[in-house]
Write a structure and sequence with these properties.
The complex is a heterodimer of chains A (492) and B (510). Chain A has 492 residues and is an all-alpha fold. Chain A contains 20 helices and two strands. Chain A has one domain. In chain A, helix 9 runs antiparallel to helix 10 and helix 16 runs antiparallel to helix 17. Chain A is globular and about 70 Å long. The model of chain A has no long low-confidence stretch (mean pLDDT 90). Chain B has 510 residues and is mainly α. Chain B is built from 21 helices and two strands. Chain B has a two-stranded antiparallel ribbon. In chain B, helix 6 runs antiparallel to helix 7, helix 10 runs parallel beside helix 13 and helix 12 runs antiparallel to helix 13. The longest helix of chain B has 32 residues. The C terminus of chain B is likely disordered. The chains are: A mainly alpha (492), B mainly alpha (510). Chains A and B meet through helix 16, helix 17 and helix 20 of A and strand 1, helix 5, helix 6 and helix 7 of B.
């Protein structure tokens, strides 16, 4: 008879709430009549995200000091709860964006069920306290996303996107798993803190087995956060996947991958700090360079945003590599406006896509800003936010990240970041240029019959994202305080 | 309310911008915006009455500070030193004229247009008011957003190329400045400009210097200037050359001069050389430019060179002359660009080949252009003369060679300005000048005459500005050595000022 450990259900409640919602969505697909299926499933999906977010907030409030629970495999701390709130918020906005998407009716229930299950998996992943739960959480949400990418089998490229994501993501997972095995082989431990203790107790610092394991673990997480040179899947998958899902991936997947990466590196490998800070800095520089330069030549807006997301992985990796108190605050702070901006930007792309019935390019965005003032203005603030202009949270995020790098004594990394920002201006402003400065008539687009579809849910998602983006600029102090107390459980 | 005046001056136009964007005023957007711009002038005059031009100590007038982000010592800290207060005054006047002109001409999508103009007003005043280096950066960058859209949407046929060039140049400068801002703030432990000490780090200094040199622009960083000034609508060109370049003046004085005394002196000769080259080169280009806007654009390059020379003379007369000349140049180039706009509306060209003879039958246009041009070429007795004279007197202390370059620039200014005046007004009637082209309309006069009036007032009493600029000079001993007349009463000991300053004072106070 194996002893069952005592389970802290409260710590797991965000994931469980989301899973419960997923069950309802899945059942609704089987039992609900067609006409009510869409609102019903979307409502319960949204409810699942809201419940998960509220429970995460409760965990956050109730847990001033972090601890390991459930046989030391799960962290119950503010760091995880903060990220869960973020993921649940991103999921909620994604439901809003998805609601008016044209979708085959036979899989509406499944779509929302998978979406909220992916959210549950991400919530589980950021709590993981050892390499087993890490892998479990990672595969949990990845499998959901593989299916979601391919769910629109009528959509050109959707199936291709799903397949590509499956194969490359599977390879990433395999690398991560292999790395975990090597780390276990070197230290005989799976728990993050236990690995750190074993490393110092057995004097394993610089042990080749451990280092190779660490490198493979890092590579596996870099796959998920789409940092170059592990980004090859990103443009194709982002382009082919249904646009709301793309937004969710670029916001939530990157969030959890980076947050988890930072937790694993600091908690499990404090003795290898000299090695991994350099490695992460190198990843950051490659991502910044590759993402920005490749984005310059993109005409398809989804691909452009995909490369932009690669370059933003680079920016956030700067904060990880700085590895100081300011760095972790900067990372957590920046993820707030960044997630909002990503989902908002893809929401606007989705709106234009539905209007035109074809892929959105810089050319066919012409005149969009004047035709749809709210969406156009929101998109302009998103682009300015990505580019790090003042009056957006993106500026404050970059400012904090560069400050943390400077404080860590890495001024050269600041210069790289600044130059990357300069390059990125060209394509971010190209979107604004396309929306506002090129009249539609100039391009001879076929006129679209009737007024654009009224998508209140999508518009409000874009509006909320804009408010978060601009609000994060002014409310930097409370948000950073929030991030600071979230980061207290990390050993720094 | 006195404490709040700086904040009101910054946020009043922003409130107007949001109002104009959100409510569907339609064609009424222009008058509403103009109302806000005039109210802004009213508040500035109110502030002028409350301003203490000899405020002792470091704290500026209308000082107001709230913590924004305490982890790194970032705060919302605003206030006006005398010199920045004059620049803010220039800003509110020129923006009001530009908004009025935009309304008179009638722009498409008025809500968006006038909202952006008000937003720009906020950002420009914010630049001049900020006393926190990150806040300064925020406003400095925030200016870019409306300018980018204003040029890109309402500009001429080559506007897209012009905006790309403009953005790349200025952002290259200002992003390097961001790196400098961060390193400066972290090394000082605070981003506050008033309480932090000075720094000797050359690299940080260069980051700031390059950003301002692009904005000014200084030779050889002026590549964006001709396109941006030609492709913008006239009122936006007026704002670009009259106001946006003055953000660089503020930066040179507030940050480079006061925060980096060591590197400033080390790099002085380099900057002076570039400014002198820009002055002569810009003047020559202005003399050869084929159209009105080309002349004004390159004359701006030249004038900014002269102003930079004054600042980098690092003495009282040079700096106060530079500030006086900044205000003069802002008013002059704004008037000239608006005049260029009125001429282009009548003839649909700015090319001298197709212009000429417009003075006949158009006395108002001829008089206004003549007066502006004559002040611009700095005839003795004009405000521009006083400013240029102070600058030359200041730079003469540093080396007479620089003064020769400055004097050459002034001679060349007479050449290109007279060429502009005669090219438009005199000679035979040009092929593009229809007989039916009207004289300046009353509305146009109502926009231009206040600007000319300000110029004439400064001609009558230049010491109003030049004598009331250096109350901050205790922060930089080199400036205090020669405090000019206006604040002479505040000298610690009553020794008479040096001989040259007597002469300057006499000419300025005349």
């Amino acid at each position: 008879m194996i002893d069952t450990p005592s389970v802290d259900w409260f710590a797991l409640s965000p994931s469980l709430a989301a899973l419960g919602a997923a069950a309802i969505c899945l059942l609704s697909g089987a039992f609900m009549p067609r006409w009510i299926l869409r609102p019903f499933a979307a409502f319960f999906c949204a409810l699942g995200f809201i419940a998960g977010g509220v429970l995460a907030l409760l965990v956050y409030i109730e847990t001033p000091d972090g601890s390991l629970v459930v046989a030391d495999t799960i962290f119950r701390d503010r760091y995880a709860a903060f990220t869960q709130i973020l993921v649940m918020g991103a999921g909620l906005l994604t439901v809003f964006v998805s609601y008016s998407a044209r979708m085959r009716e036979d899989h509406i229930g499944e779509y929302y069920a998978l979406l909220v299950t992916a959210g549950a998996g991400m919530a589980f992943l950021v709590q993981s306290g050892n390499l087993m739960t890490l892998f479990l959480g990672l595969e949990w949400f990845s499998v959901c996303l593989y299916v979601l990418c391919a769910i629109e089998i009528d959509l050109v490229g959707s199936l291709e996107a799903g397949l590509k994501y499956l194969i490359i993501g599977g390879m990433g997972s395999a690398v991560l798993l292999f790395g975990s095995a090597l780390i276990y082989g070197a230290t005989g431990e799976l728990g993050y803190s236990a690995i750190a203790q074993a490393t110092s107790a057995q004097d394993l610092t610089g042990d080749p087995l451990l280092l190779v394991g660490l490198a493979m673990l890092l590579a596996g997480l870099a796959f998920k956060s789409s940092a170059a040179p592990f980004h090859m899947w990103t443009p194709d998958v982002y382009e082919g996947a249904p646009t709301p899902i793309t937004g969710f991936m670029s916001a939530a997947t990157k969030t959890v991958a980076l947050v988890l990466m930072y937790r694993v590196l600091t908690v499990a490998f404090p003795d290898e700090k000299d090695v991994w800070t350099i490695a992460v800095a190198v990843l950051a520089v490659i991502s910044l360079a590759w993402g920005n330069i490749a984005a310059l030549v993109q005409a398809n807006v989804k691909r452009l945003l995909a490369y932009s997301s690669i370059s933003h992985a680079g920016f956030m990796l700067i904060a990880v590599s700085a590895d100081n108190e300011l760095g972790v605050r900067a990372l957590l702070y920046y993820l707030i406006p960044y997630s909002a901006i990503s989902i908002g930007a893809f929401a606007v792309v989705a709106a234009r896509e539905r209007e035109l019935g074809e892929a959105v390019t810089l050319d066919n965005l012409a005149g969009f800003g004047w035709e749809r003032p709210l969406l156009g203005f929101s998109m302009a603030t998103f682009m300015l936010g990505f580019a790090g202009f003042p009056l957006t949270g993106g500026f404050m995020g970059k400012f904090l990240i560069f400050s943390s790098a400077s404080e860590a004594g890495w001024n050269w990394l600041v210069i790289v970041g600044v130059l990357a920002t300069l390059v990125s201006l060209y394509y971010y402003l190209a979107v604004i240029r396309a929306m506002y400065m090129r009249p539609a008539a100039e391009l001879g687009l076929a006129p679209i019959g009737g007024s654009p579809p009224r998508e209140i849910m999508l518009s409000s998602a874009a509006f909320i994202a804009m408010v978060v983006n601009v609000g994060a600029f002014f409310a930097v102090q409370p948000l950073v305080d929030f991030a600071r107390s979230a980061a207290t459980t990390l050993p720094l | 309310m006195t404490d709040w005046l700086a904040t009101i001056l910054i946020f009043l136009p922003l409130a107007g911008a949001i109002l104009v964007w959100v409510f569907p005023f339609g064609r009424l957007a222009g008058p509403v915006a103009l109302l806000f711009a005039l109210a802004e002038i009213g508040f500035w005059i109110e502030a002028l009455g409350q301003m203490n031009f000899d405020k002792p100590g470091l704290q500026p007038n209308f000082n107001q500070q709230w913590s924004w982000f305490s982890d790194l010592g970032v705060s919302y800290h605003v206030g006006f030193y005398a010199f920045s207060f004059w620049l803010a005054g220039l800003a509110v006047v020129v923006m009001a004229a530009a908004i009025a002109y935009g309304f008179w001409v009638g722009r498409e999508r008025p809500s968006a247009y006038f909202g952006l103009m008000l937003f720009l007003t906020s950002a420009v005043v914010g630049v001049f008011a900020s006393q926190d280096v990150l806040l300064f950066y925020v406003f400095f960058e925030a200016m870019m957003i409306p300018l980018y859209v204003l040029i890109g949407v309402w500009g001429g046929p080559g506007r897209l190329g012009a905006t790309v060039k403009f953005v790349i140049y200025t952002m290259a400068g200002s992003l390097l400045m961001l790196a400098s801002v961060i390193v400066f703030g972290l090394s000082e432990g605070s981003f506050d400009l008033v309480t932090t000490g000075t720094s000797d780090n050359t690299w940080i200094f260069l980051g700031f210097l390059v950003a301002f040199a692009v904005k000014a622009p200084l030779f050889p960083l002026h590549g964006w200037l001709p396109d941006a000034y030609r492709e913008s609508s006239p009122e936006v060109s007026a704002v670009l050359s009259g106001l946006i370049s003055k953000a660089a003046v503020f930066g040179f004085i507030r940050i480079c001069l006061l925060k980096f005394p060591g590197p400033f002196d080390d790099w002085r000769n380099v900057v002076l050389a570039l400014a002198a080259i820009g002055l002569v080169y810009g003047s020559l280009l202005a003399f050869r430019a084929p159209d009105i806007r080309g002349v004004i654009a390159y004359s701006s390059l030249a004038q900014m060179g002269l102003i930079t020379i004054g600042i980098f003379a690092t003495n009282a007369s040079g700096v106060s002359g530079a500030i006086l000349q900044s205000v003069n140049h802002g008013l002059i180039s704004a008037s000239l660009f608006l005049l260029a706009g009125t001429i282009e509306r009548r003839t649909s060209t700015g090319s001298f080949e197709r212009l000429g003879g417009m003075a006949r039958g158009r006395p108002a246009l001829a008089t206004v252009l003549m007066v502006t041009g004559i002040i611009a070429l700095a005839v003795p007795g004009s405000g521009a003369f006083a400013g240029e004279f102070l600058i030359l007197a200041g730079i003469f202390d540093i080396g007479w060679g620089w003064a020769i370059a400055g004097a050459a620039g002034i001679v060349l200014a007479a050449m290109y300005m007279l060429r502009l005046i005669s090219g438009v007004l005199h000679r035979d009637q040009g092929p593009s000048v229809p007989d039916a082209a009207l004289d300046l309309r009353p509305a146009e006069l109502a926009i231009l005459l206040p600007l000319i009036g300000c110029l004439l007032a400064l001609s009558a009493w230049p010491a109003a500005i030049s004598g009331n600029t250096l109350e901050f000079s205790s922060q930089r001993p080199a400036l205090e050595k020669l405090r000019p007349a206006g604040s002479a009463g505040k000298r610690p000991n009553d020794e008479p000022p040096e001989g040259r300053m007597d002469f300057v004072r006499a000419s300025v106070n005349k």
